[in-house]
Amino acid sequence: VGLGPVRGAFDLATTITIEEPGRSASMSVKGGGMGSGVDMSAKMFLEDLEDQEGTLLKWTCDVVVSGPIATIGGRLIDGQARKITEQVFENIRNALISSKDGVAVANEEAE
Predict the structure, then answer these.
(1) How far apart are CA 22 and CA 61, in angstroms?
(2) Of 4, 32, 71, 98, which is the most buried if we count CB atoms within 10 A?
(3) What's the sign of the alpha-carbon dihedral 74, 56, 15, 91?
(4) Cα–Cα distance between 104 and 33 in angstroms, integer?
């Protein structure tokens, strides 16, 4: 992980809990490295869009960073967190598109 001029490895433990299947989940990330700590709690909610074809994803996240990494400053941490979050949602999007394509292929083969 890199944050501005600081680079290093973090040891993180992640727990994902399905709150309501197909509707909500939560994720907890705890750990640290380089004398710093990270404690994150995130929640995700899915909602079917009745007027349109698709699903709305709503999410919240609270993060506490401690130690030397925290002293670098909020702007760098916010920017890196935003970049990682965008990567996560892009990966989810790509996985869903691949899954949808796989289902379409499977349905064509079944016919």
Answers:
(1) 19
(2) 32
(3) negative
(4) 44
Q: How far apart are the first and last CA of the chain?
A: 48
Whole-angstrom Cα distance, residue 56 to residue 7?
35
Which of 30, 40, 35 minimizes the C-alpha distance to 9?
A: 35
Which are the contacts of 29, defined by CB distance < 8 A and separation ≥ 6?
12, 13, 14, 15, 38, 39, 40, 42
* pLDDT tens digits along 15-35: 989 999 888 999 899 998 888
pTM of structure: 0.64
Whether the Cβ atoms of residue 38 and residue 67 lie closer than 8 Å to each other: no
